[in-house]
Design brief:
This protein is of the alpha/beta class. 29% of the residues lie in helices and 19% in strands. It has two domains: 2-118 and 283-309, Rossmann fold, CATH 3.40.50; 125-279, Rossmann fold (3-Layer(aba) Sandwich), CATH 3.40.50.2000. It has nine helices and 17 strands. The protein has a six-stranded parallel sheet, with helices on both faces. A four-stranded parallel sheet has the order 3-4-5-6, covered by helices on one side. It has a three-stranded parallel sheet with strand order 2-1-17. The protein is globular.
Length: 314
Amino acid sequence: MTFVTSETDQSRSLLQGEEVRFVPRVPPRDWRTATRALPTALGLIRREQVTDVISTGSAIAVPYLLGARLARREAHYIESAARTDGPSVAGQILRRIPGMRLYTQYPRWADDQWSYRGSVFDGFVARPSDAERAAPRRVVVTLGTLNQYPFDRAVQAVRRVLTQLGDEDVHVLWQIGEAQAEGLSGEVRATVPADRLRVAIAQADLVIAHAGTGSALQILDAGRIPLFLPRSSARGEHIDDHQLLIAAELEGRGLAVTADPDDLSVEHVRKALSARVEHRSATDFHLKPQKVEVPAHGTGLDRRSDLSASTLPR
C-alpha cells in the first residue's frame, strides 16, 4: 500500500514507516491546482500498476480518483465522516464520473448512488465516569494546523476558562497553529508531532479541540470525551461549517461536549469529564465489489493494489 498526500509535520509523523509519495498540496476548492495534479496522478497510477485507488478526500481525491478511472482502475471514494447531511464539493464532483464507487458514512442520505457501509464513529460508546469530581491536572488543547485559519477566538476562550478553574498545578499542552500565543501558560506549539500528541491525549484528563474528524478519532480512541469548539465559517475560521456537523453528530451520540468559544464555561469542562469512551465491535467496512475488508477505523486496499490516494483524516 502506498499513501499519497502533501508533506507536513503531521503527515510525516503519522505515516512514518509507510510507503508514501509526497505531492504538492491541493488547497480546498482550488480546482486549478487539482487539475494540474492530474498528469502526475495518472502517471503514478500507470507506472506502479495500481489496481484500486481509495480516498476520503478532500481536494486531492479528485485528480487521483479521476486518474484511476481514466486508467480504467477501480476508484473508491468514501465521503468524510464530517459530511453528515450530504456530499462535500469533492463528492459532488466525483459522483459525476462514470464508474466511481461512492460511500457515505450516514444511512440518512444513502441512495442508489451512495452506499452506506458504516461509520468510523460506530466503534465507540460513552460510559459514565466520576472524573468530574476532580479538577483536571493534564489538559491538551489541539486546534489543528490550518495556517490560513488561525483560531484565536478558541485560544482566548480556553485561556479564560482554565483561569476560572483556578488550579495553578494544571499542565497544558497547546497546539494552536498560527493563532496568537500571547499570555498562554504551559507548553505552546504551532504543531505537535502526531506520536507526541497521541501520547499526550492518552495521558490527559481533558482534551479541548476544534471539531476535526482526525482530532475526534484520536481523542475517542484514547478513551476521552472531547470538548469541541467548532470553527465558524462566518467568522473566517474555516472554509465551511463541517465542524459544526461533526460536533452535532458526536454530541448526539453522547461522544462529545460542544460549545461555541464565546459561550465556553466551566460547566462544559465538568460535563466532558463526566464520561469516558470505550471501544465496541463495529461492522467491517466492505468496498464494492467485496475485494477487501476495511475496518471502520481505517483504510485498506485489495492485495493486488499498491496505491491509496488519501489525505489524512479530517
